[in-house]
Design brief:
This protein is an all-alpha fold. It contains 6 helices and no strands. 25% of the residues are buried. The mean pLDDT is 93.
């Protein structure tokens, strides 16, 4: 039950963030262009967050989704958390890294018994 709660908490963050991005997709496109990602990736980014977050919540191909989201968290932490003085917002970056750590633990241990992965006999 604890693993399910953890999956819900981790996944909900991304489902909500992805949904919110769809409500201001032009702003997201402009924001992406401040880093290494081109603006045309705004829709794929929002959709990725929603789909991967849902995969984590329901426990479907959890290990793959966890690795993808861990990499996403690290990349966004590095490239999209500048501080006002031109440096890096260390607090925001470390929060992203911490969430990535949660996903790496989920990758290591799997989705748990209350998941689609467990019902289909998979370990993903």
């Amino acid at each position: 039950m604890i693993v399910l709660l953890g999956r819900i908490l981790l996944g909900a963050l991304f489902v909500m963030a992805g949904f919110n991005k769809t409500q201001g997709i032009d702003g997201l496109a402009g924001f992406l262009e401040t880093g290494p990602v081109p603006g045309f990736m705004a829709w794929p980014t929002a959709i990725f967050e929603i789909v991967a977050g849902l995969m984590i919540i329901v426990g479907f191909f959890t290990r793959y989704a966890a690795v993808a989201l861990a990499l996403f968290c690290i990349a966004t932490g590095v490239f999209y958390h500048p501080a006002e003085d031109g440096g890096i917002d260390i607090g925001a970056m470390l929060k992203n890294f911490s969430v990535a750590g949660g996903f790496l633990i989920l990758y290591t241990h799997g989705a748990g018994m209350l998941s689609i992965d467990a019902r289909r006999g998979g370990t993903d």
